[in-house]
Design a protein that fits this description.
Length: about 130
């Protein structure tokens, strides 16, 4: 039984990357997971990914480019005002300007850097570096 779809997907990405695999298939999928993968891709942590629809919840085939040192979800999903983002960066990322926090905001899912540019807070979802 899968309790947390996003946690299982990110754990699969991390485990396959550590074992040296070049590709991982994650199932089932969700819109939120696809948005998180787009942010990982924009940051250069994963390669191309392909969403495949089937009648069992869909699946995503992700190309790994071996740039992920660590990644994970943040639970509970803490609410973060804009002025508190640096505190959470220090907590989850190893160094300044190294890695990405994924934040869901009223303006959509984005990285913490985009949230700073758009001057909006939100809730923390995941991190990668």
């Amino acid at each position: 039984m899968m309790n947390d779809l996003i946690n299982n997907a990110i754990a699969d990405i991390k485990n396959h990357g550590r074992t040296g695999k070049s590709e991982v298939v994650v199932r089932p999928t969700s819109k939120l997971l696809i948005d998180i993968l787009k942010i990982f891709q924009k940051g250069g942590y994963i390669g191309e990914f392909e969403v495949l629809e089937d009648k069992k919840g869909g699946q995503v085939r992700i190309k790994l480019i071996k740039k992920i040192n660590d990644c994970g979800i943040i639970k509970p999903r803490f609410p973060v005002p804009l002025d508190e983002l640096p505190k959470w960066e220090k907590r989850y990322l190893p160094a300044r300007d190294f890695g990405i926090l994924v934040v869901t905001t009223p303006k959509g899912v984005m990285s913490h850097k985009e949230a700073k540019e758009k001057k909006t807070g939100g809730r923390l979802l995941a991190y990668v570096y």
